[in-house]
Design goal:
Helices cover about 40% and strands about 15% of the residues. It has about 240 residues and is of the alpha/beta class. Strands 3-2-1-4-5-6-7 form a seven-stranded parallel beta sheet, sandwiched between helices. The structure holds NADP nicotinamide-adenine-dinucleotide phosphate. The site of NADP nicotinamide-adenine-dinucleotide phosphate (NAP) has 30 residues, from helix 1 and helix 6.
Protein backbone atom coordinates (compact mmCIF):
# COMPACT_ATOMS: atom_id res chain seq x y z
CA UNK A 1 0.00 0.00 0.00
CA UNK A 2 1.44 3.37 -0.96
CA UNK A 3 1.47 6.18 1.56
CA UNK A 4 1.32 8.77 -1.23
CA UNK A 5 3.90 10.91 -2.94
CA UNK A 6 6.87 12.34 -1.05
CA UNK A 7 9.15 15.00 -2.55
CA UNK A 8 12.70 15.16 -1.16
CA UNK A 9 14.91 18.11 -2.14
CA UNK A 10 18.70 17.86 -2.05
CA UNK A 11 18.58 14.09 -2.39
CA UNK A 12 21.87 13.66 -4.29
CA UNK A 13 23.82 13.12 -1.07
CA UNK A 14 23.76 12.98 2.72
CA UNK A 15 20.52 13.39 4.65
CA UNK A 16 18.39 13.84 1.53
CA UNK A 17 19.57 10.61 -0.10
CA UNK A 18 19.16 8.68 3.16
CA UNK A 19 15.68 10.17 3.63
CA UNK A 20 14.64 9.17 0.12
CA UNK A 21 15.81 5.61 0.84
CA UNK A 22 13.97 5.47 4.18
CA UNK A 23 10.72 6.84 2.75
CA UNK A 24 10.79 4.51 -0.27
CA UNK A 25 11.31 1.56 2.08
CA UNK A 26 8.34 2.79 4.12
CA UNK A 27 5.99 2.68 1.12
CA UNK A 28 6.16 6.25 -0.19
CA UNK A 29 6.25 7.08 -3.90
CA UNK A 30 9.39 9.21 -3.79
CA UNK A 31 10.33 12.05 -6.13
CA UNK A 32 13.86 13.33 -5.66
CA UNK A 33 15.45 16.59 -6.78
CA UNK A 34 18.93 18.17 -6.76
CA UNK A 35 21.41 19.70 -9.17
CA UNK A 36 23.69 16.64 -9.61
CA UNK A 37 21.37 14.63 -11.80
CA UNK A 38 23.75 11.67 -12.36
CA UNK A 39 23.70 10.90 -8.64
CA UNK A 40 19.95 11.42 -8.44
CA UNK A 41 19.30 9.01 -11.28
CA UNK A 42 21.46 6.32 -9.66
CA UNK A 43 19.53 6.75 -6.41
CA UNK A 44 16.20 6.65 -8.22
CA UNK A 45 17.09 3.37 -9.91
CA UNK A 46 18.27 1.91 -6.57
CA UNK A 47 15.07 2.72 -4.65
CA UNK A 48 12.44 2.88 -7.39
CA UNK A 49 12.00 6.65 -7.16
CA UNK A 50 11.56 9.34 -9.80
CA UNK A 51 14.35 11.88 -10.32
CA UNK A 52 14.09 15.41 -11.72
CA UNK A 53 16.70 18.16 -11.83
CA UNK A 54 16.14 20.85 -9.23
CA UNK A 55 17.95 24.01 -8.23
CA UNK A 56 15.97 25.52 -5.37
CA UNK A 57 17.64 28.92 -5.92
CA UNK A 58 16.20 29.12 -9.44
CA UNK A 59 12.47 29.87 -9.66
CA UNK A 60 12.23 28.47 -13.21
CA UNK A 61 13.88 25.21 -12.11
CA UNK A 62 11.47 24.93 -9.16
CA UNK A 63 8.50 25.59 -11.47
CA UNK A 64 9.63 22.88 -13.91
CA UNK A 65 10.22 20.41 -11.05
CA UNK A 66 6.84 21.07 -9.43
CA UNK A 67 5.06 20.80 -12.80
CA UNK A 68 6.20 17.17 -12.94
CA UNK A 69 4.99 16.30 -9.43
CA UNK A 70 1.17 16.05 -9.50
CA UNK A 71 -0.23 14.70 -6.22
CA UNK A 72 1.90 15.24 -3.12
CA UNK A 73 1.38 14.38 0.54
CA UNK A 74 4.87 15.01 1.95
CA UNK A 75 7.48 17.66 1.17
CA UNK A 76 10.91 17.25 2.75
CA UNK A 77 12.76 20.57 2.44
CA UNK A 78 16.28 19.26 2.87
CA UNK A 79 18.38 21.08 0.21
CA UNK A 80 20.75 23.43 1.95
CA UNK A 81 24.08 23.83 3.66
CA UNK A 82 26.74 26.23 4.85
CA UNK A 83 29.48 28.10 3.01
CA UNK A 84 32.58 29.20 4.86
CA UNK A 85 33.36 29.81 8.54
CA UNK A 86 34.63 33.39 8.39
CA UNK A 87 34.05 35.89 11.18
CA UNK A 88 31.63 38.71 10.35
CA UNK A 89 34.57 41.08 9.90
CA UNK A 90 35.72 39.03 6.89
CA UNK A 91 32.38 37.63 5.74
CA UNK A 92 31.83 36.99 2.05
CA UNK A 93 28.55 38.61 1.04
CA UNK A 94 28.15 36.26 -1.92
CA UNK A 95 28.34 33.21 0.36
CA UNK A 96 25.72 34.74 2.67
CA UNK A 97 23.46 35.44 -0.30
CA UNK A 98 23.76 31.85 -1.54
CA UNK A 99 23.07 30.43 1.95
CA UNK A 100 19.95 32.58 2.30
CA UNK A 101 18.80 31.79 -1.23
CA UNK A 102 19.23 28.03 -0.73
CA UNK A 103 18.24 27.48 2.90
CA UNK A 104 15.46 30.08 3.20
CA UNK A 105 14.14 31.16 -0.19
CA UNK A 106 14.50 27.58 -1.46
CA UNK A 107 12.17 26.46 1.32
CA UNK A 108 9.75 29.27 0.43
CA UNK A 109 9.75 28.41 -3.29
CA UNK A 110 9.17 24.68 -2.78
CA UNK A 111 6.62 25.06 0.01
CA UNK A 112 4.62 27.78 -1.71
CA UNK A 113 4.32 25.85 -4.96
CA UNK A 114 3.49 22.48 -3.39
CA UNK A 115 1.04 23.76 -0.75
CA UNK A 116 -2.03 23.38 -3.00
CA UNK A 117 -1.21 19.69 -3.64
CA UNK A 118 -0.31 19.08 0.02
CA UNK A 119 -3.62 20.57 1.16
CA UNK A 120 -5.62 18.76 -1.54
CA UNK A 121 -4.21 15.44 -0.27
CA UNK A 122 -6.27 15.89 2.90
CA UNK A 123 -3.24 15.05 5.07
CA UNK A 124 -0.23 16.97 3.84
CA UNK A 125 3.05 17.42 5.66
CA UNK A 126 6.01 19.78 5.31
CA UNK A 127 9.17 18.54 7.00
CA UNK A 128 12.08 20.97 6.85
CA UNK A 129 15.65 20.20 7.85
CA UNK A 130 16.83 23.09 10.01
CA UNK A 131 19.82 22.85 12.32
CA UNK A 132 21.08 23.34 15.85
CA UNK A 133 22.66 26.38 14.13
CA UNK A 134 19.12 27.80 14.03
CA UNK A 135 19.09 27.92 17.85
CA UNK A 136 22.67 28.69 18.86
CA UNK A 137 24.95 31.20 17.15
CA UNK A 138 28.64 30.34 17.03
CA UNK A 139 31.73 32.31 15.90
CA UNK A 140 32.14 32.05 12.14
CA UNK A 141 28.60 30.76 11.75
CA UNK A 142 26.70 34.04 11.34
CA UNK A 143 25.66 33.60 7.71
CA UNK A 144 24.50 30.01 8.25
CA UNK A 145 23.06 30.84 11.69
CA UNK A 146 21.04 33.67 10.18
CA UNK A 147 19.68 31.39 7.46
CA UNK A 148 18.71 28.56 9.84
CA UNK A 149 17.23 30.98 12.42
CA UNK A 150 15.18 32.35 9.51
CA UNK A 151 14.00 28.89 8.47
CA UNK A 152 12.79 28.27 12.02
CA UNK A 153 10.82 31.52 11.92
CA UNK A 154 9.31 30.59 8.56
CA UNK A 155 8.21 27.17 9.82
CA UNK A 156 6.71 28.75 12.95
CA UNK A 157 4.71 31.20 10.85
CA UNK A 158 3.61 28.51 8.40
CA UNK A 159 2.30 26.33 11.25
CA UNK A 160 0.16 29.23 12.46
CA UNK A 161 -1.05 30.21 9.00
CA UNK A 162 -2.14 26.64 8.23
CA UNK A 163 -3.98 26.12 11.51
CA UNK A 164 -7.35 24.55 10.70
CA UNK A 165 -6.14 23.21 7.36
CA UNK A 166 -4.93 19.63 6.77
CA UNK A 167 -1.19 20.29 6.48
CA UNK A 168 1.29 19.54 9.27
CA UNK A 169 4.54 21.47 9.64
CA UNK A 170 7.62 19.95 11.24
CA UNK A 171 11.20 21.10 11.58
CA UNK A 172 13.96 18.60 12.29
CA UNK A 173 17.10 20.24 13.67
CA UNK A 174 20.21 18.05 13.70
CA UNK A 175 23.59 18.72 15.22
CA UNK A 176 26.74 17.28 13.61
CA UNK A 177 25.94 14.79 10.86
CA UNK A 178 28.79 13.31 8.86
CA UNK A 179 27.85 13.98 5.22
CA UNK A 180 29.34 16.16 2.50
CA UNK A 181 28.21 19.20 4.53
CA UNK A 182 31.69 20.16 5.80
CA UNK A 183 33.35 19.38 2.46
CA UNK A 184 30.96 21.84 0.82
CA UNK A 185 31.37 24.37 3.64
CA UNK A 186 35.16 24.36 3.25
CA UNK A 187 35.17 24.46 -0.56
CA UNK A 188 36.34 20.85 -1.04
CA UNK A 189 39.14 20.96 1.59
CA UNK A 190 38.90 17.28 2.69
CA UNK A 191 41.38 17.41 5.65
CA UNK A 192 39.61 20.47 7.09
CA UNK A 193 36.24 18.76 6.64
CA UNK A 194 37.48 15.53 8.28
CA UNK A 195 38.81 17.51 11.28
CA UNK A 196 35.22 18.58 12.11
CA UNK A 197 34.41 14.96 13.03
CA UNK A 198 37.80 13.97 14.54
CA UNK A 199 37.43 12.09 17.84
CA UNK A 200 33.62 12.36 17.69
CA UNK A 201 30.94 9.85 16.86
CA UNK A 202 28.61 12.14 14.90
CA UNK A 203 25.10 11.40 13.69
CA UNK A 204 24.82 9.63 10.35
CA UNK A 205 22.53 10.66 7.53
CA UNK A 206 20.51 7.52 8.29
CA UNK A 207 19.93 8.72 11.88
CA UNK A 208 18.27 11.88 10.60
CA UNK A 209 16.40 10.01 7.86
CA UNK A 210 14.90 7.80 10.55
CA UNK A 211 13.58 10.95 12.29
CA UNK A 212 11.92 12.07 9.05
CA UNK A 213 10.46 8.61 8.48
CA UNK A 214 9.09 8.55 12.04
CA UNK A 215 7.61 12.06 11.85
CA UNK A 216 6.01 11.28 8.48
CA UNK A 217 4.43 8.08 9.78
CA UNK A 218 2.61 9.64 12.78
CA UNK A 219 -1.19 9.67 12.44
CA UNK A 220 -2.74 12.80 10.86
CA UNK A 221 -3.73 14.44 14.16
CA UNK A 222 -0.14 14.36 15.49
CA UNK A 223 2.14 17.26 14.52
CA UNK A 224 5.74 16.94 15.68
CA UNK A 225 6.56 20.66 15.66
CA UNK A 226 10.31 20.52 16.26
CA UNK A 227 12.75 17.71 16.76
CA UNK A 228 16.30 18.58 17.86
CA UNK A 229 18.61 15.61 17.45
CA UNK A 230 22.26 15.62 18.47
CA UNK A 231 24.98 13.00 18.78
CA UNK A 232 25.69 11.86 22.34
CA UNK A 233 29.09 13.56 21.87
CA UNK A 234 27.43 16.94 21.34
CA UNK A 235 25.62 19.08 23.92
CA UNK A 236 25.10 22.21 21.85
CA UNK A 237 26.38 23.97 18.73
CA UNK A 238 29.74 24.64 20.42
CA UNK A 239 29.98 21.89 23.02
CA UNK A 240 31.51 18.77 21.52
CA UNK A 241 33.26 15.96 23.37
CA UNK A 242 36.32 14.69 21.49
CA UNK A 243 38.37 11.61 22.28
CA UNK A 244 42.09 11.67 21.50
CA UNK A 245 42.71 10.43 17.94
N1 LIG B 1 25.56 17.67 8.12
C1 LIG B 1 25.27 18.40 9.18
O1 LIG B 1 26.04 18.46 10.16
C2 LIG B 1 23.95 19.13 9.24
C3 LIG B 1 23.51 19.55 10.50
C4 LIG B 1 22.30 20.25 10.59
C5 LIG B 1 21.57 20.51 9.45
N2 LIG B 1 22.04 20.11 8.23
C6 LIG B 1 21.20 20.43 7.06
O2 LIG B 1 20.83 19.21 6.46
C7 LIG B 1 20.54 19.45 5.08
C8 LIG B 1 21.25 18.41 4.23
O3 LIG B 1 22.65 18.56 4.38
P1 LIG B 1 23.67 17.32 4.38
O4 LIG B 1 24.32 17.30 5.70
O5 LIG B 1 23.02 16.10 3.89
O6 LIG B 1 24.77 17.89 3.34
P2 LIG B 1 25.20 17.40 1.89
O7 LIG B 1 25.65 15.98 1.92
O8 LIG B 1 26.15 18.45 1.40
O9 LIG B 1 23.84 17.48 1.04
C9 LIG B 1 23.28 18.70 0.67
C10 LIG B 1 22.25 18.44 -0.42
O10 LIG B 1 21.62 19.68 -0.76
C11 LIG B 1 21.61 19.79 -2.19
N3 LIG B 1 21.60 21.17 -2.61
C12 LIG B 1 22.46 22.15 -2.27
N4 LIG B 1 22.15 23.28 -2.93
C13 LIG B 1 21.06 22.99 -3.68
C14 LIG B 1 20.27 23.74 -4.59
N5 LIG B 1 20.54 25.02 -4.87
N6 LIG B 1 19.22 23.13 -5.19
C15 LIG B 1 18.93 21.83 -4.93
N7 LIG B 1 19.65 21.07 -4.08
C16 LIG B 1 20.70 21.66 -3.48
C17 LIG B 1 22.85 19.05 -2.65
O11 LIG B 1 22.64 18.57 -3.98
P3 LIG B 1 23.30 19.18 -5.31
O12 LIG B 1 24.62 19.78 -4.92
O13 LIG B 1 23.41 17.97 -6.19
O14 LIG B 1 22.31 20.17 -5.81
C18 LIG B 1 22.87 17.87 -1.69
O15 LIG B 1 22.05 16.82 -2.18
C19 LIG B 1 20.94 20.91 4.80
O16 LIG B 1 19.79 21.72 4.85
C20 LIG B 1 21.87 21.22 5.96
O17 LIG B 1 21.91 22.60 6.24
C21 LIG B 1 23.19 19.41 8.11
Amino acid sequence: MTRGTAVVTGASSGIGAATARALAADGWEVIVGARRVDRLKALAVEIGATAHPLDVTDAASVDAFVASVGDCRLLVNNAGGALGLSPIADADEGQWRTMYDTNVLGVLRMTQRLLPALEASGDGQVVTIGSIAGYEPYPGGAGYNAAKFAVRAVMGVLRQELLGRPVRVCEIDPGMVETEFSLVRFGGDAPRAAAVYAGVEPLTADDVAECVRWVASRPPHVNVDQLVVLARDQAGARQVHRRPT
